[in-house]
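Worked problem 6 (solution included).
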Amino acid sequence: MSRSTPATIALTKAGVVFDLYTYDYDPGSERVGLQAAEALGEDPRRVLKTLIVMLDGKPACAILPSDQEVSMKKLAAALKGKSAAMAPVPDAERITGYKVGGVSPFGQKKRLPTVLESAALSEPYVFINGGQRGLQVRLAPADAVKALGAVTAAIVAE
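Solution. The predicted structure is:
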């Protein structure tokens, strides 16, 4: 497994301090984020998943705890849009340059409007996909927000 991905290169260029963690990716897992949390021995609220959505017809990115579901209504409001829906897998892969299961918000082909679940800011560290299936970066949530130019908001479904 390569430890150098567009995501890790982007983080390094941004001067972000991070650690890399690898785990055995299970392509048959129903919920990739939860499988990653279990494999890493971490609380799912610290292992964040990256979702690509279509916000008013344009791509955007949502980052939230792996054990939560996104509220499309809250997500759209956080990014000042009217409506949001999950992007189809082929579109998400084309837009980001990553394969689903390895989608990272860092180092995408084009920087997308991004929102990070605000509850993650209360964690001392979070794990976010490092741009490859089975590769996670561990970093401070505030560093992720800064590197992505992300907004923070409560976007999980209740």
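Discussion: Residues 14 and 143 are 10 Å apart (CA to CA).
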